[in-house]
Amino acid sequence: MPAEDLLNKIEEEIKAVIPADIRITDIEFEGAELVIYTKDPEKFAEKSDLVKQLAKKLQKRIVVRADPSVLESIEEAEKKIKELIPEEAKLVNIYFEPDVGEVTIEVEKPGVAIGKKGALLNEIRKAIGWAPKVIRAPPMPSKTVQDIRKYLRMVAEERINFLRKLGRRLHRGTSEGEKWIRITSLGGYREVGRSCTLLSTPDSKILIDCGIDVSSPDNGSPYLHMPEVLPLDSIDGVVVTHAHLDHCGLVPMLFKYGYDGPVYTTYPTRDVMVLLQMDYLRVCADEAKKPPYSSEHIRKEITNTIPLNYGDTTDIAPDIRLTMHRAGHILGSAICHFHIGDGLFNIAFSGDIKYEKTWLFSAAATHFPRLEALVLEATYGGKNDIQPSRKKATEQLKEIVKKTLESKGKVLVPVFAIGRSQEVMIVLEHLMKEKEIPEAPIYLDGMIWEATAIHTVYPEYLNADLRKKIFQEGENPLMSEIFERVDSYDKRREIIDDKDPCIVLATSGMLNGGPVMEYFKAWAEGERNTLVFVGYQAEGTLGRKIQKGWKEVVIGDKVIKIEMNIETCEGFSGHSDRNQLMNYVRNLTPKPKKIVVNHGEESKCLDLAASIHKKYGISTLAIRNLETVRFR
What we know:
Helix content is 35%, strand content 22%. By secondary structure, the chain is an alpha/beta fold. The protein has 4 domains: 63 residues, GMP Synthetase, Chain A, domain 3, CATH 3.30.300.230; 67 residues, 2-Layer Sandwich (GMP Synthetase, Chain A, domain 3); 220 residues, Ribonuclease Z/Hydroxyacylglutathione hydrolase-like (Metallo-beta-lactamase, Chain A, 4-Layer Sandwich), CATH 3.60.15.10; 183 residues, Rossmann fold (3-Layer(aba) Sandwich), CATH 3.40.50. The strands form 6 sheets. It has a 7-stranded mixed sheet with strand order 12-11-10-9-8-7-28. Strands 13-14-15-16-17-26-27 form a 7-stranded mixed sheet, with helices on one face. Helix 11 packs antiparallel against helix 15 and helix 20 runs parallel beside helix 21.
């Protein structure tokens, strides 16, 4: 049935159930939701069973919104909120979302702003018409998050039009005849970088990740020119597992070449993804490289992103439903579970996972309602890829830092802005507070400060211990006064020239650009200094060459002699090691019948695939790029 006819049928059914005193002004598909606009939202709220009754009858996710005519203007609503919120709640920010008729109120004391049994919240709702949501204000304001929220307010009308267009597309119905499911590997198979997979059925096409190979001299892109991918507007949706550039770096480019559909990811991934993509454009400009897209395409990506929380399930195609689960890799990283057809098939894509509780996150999720197939990463899938525990890694980092600082040297830690930076920060803060390492300034250079601020916006994505420390004990190790932000070229030069010992965390993590290069060039020849690798070094990067023992490297037109100490602290990786990957498969519930291995060097993919099959009897494949696997 065409979407328009379906909507008319639904409208008749809704009006037959809803009491005459509730005025309905519009009924629309907006994305996967059926939205009912009413001039009487309060009456709807009083009849709480009404929405449940309709959702059950129509088999749709129903959202009730106030008709725009009963909403106060943003200016007036803001004024009334400020009058109603008690001073002791400490109001910090107010964000309006006109596309959904909601307002987010950021305060330091949410309980005070909500009121007893939600009384104050109800009072606000009655006074302004908007649906209020009170959240705890993050202790570190994030410019990225503020800019994204401000931009979404500006494009509210465009976003509503996009969601309505998407809603009709999602409800176009499915075809009769043979059903099949297949994936095509477009990047990141038997390699690390440019992750991209096409999931296809007779009725849908979903792109999972669209990354860039940052270690490639020409920044390798996925095989997006293949006939099964084109035209790009035939793709129903793009799903992003997490915000590292090898998974999301080329998503904006899709919009440049004709894609106009949705991007599904978690809330933190959306914000971090935008931060890293904007930084990628800056790096391209600094290196006089032609970028594959512009900031205009990143803005379009923001408009079209539909963020989800862990556990949320949504339709992303007429025959595919998506649920995001915790991956433990970086902030917001997700294992993406796809339920295809009416119970026909279930496949999950691990993205990058960490199957161990870390200083920041809980371990990757292993329980799914159903699971017939899994695409699993193999970054450290080789038989010798055994990492020390977080506890041992902390001990190792302590000894390295202690020795260097006591010999009056400098410690340089190349880090990815997201994940490793914050873990190392927490460890250093703990060691210095407990006086297990000498006191010294710790400088954060690159995007680390802003990335850390985004972590404080989403405390619900951090592990329970860290949340308890922040909210119940009032201690946020990420905000310790021992950390100092490097926010200018002059400040960087001052640190480089200073003779006193210090610790510097700087991007990028593989020494392929960024401010870390300035410190490395200046300190490489100092025998008392130490370079500590805490993250994966891809083949071909400067980081991997130094890790292998190169004593001389060329940067630009300068030959750098390496006399500083080179150390690797494996236990801080955001990837599972060999044992964790094998344990992850062992603990999966239910067990998949087939596992496809990706995101690893060729030998590691082959080794992991063979080991899983041998130990668990599961059918495994380590496919190459451009291969297609049919599951049904």
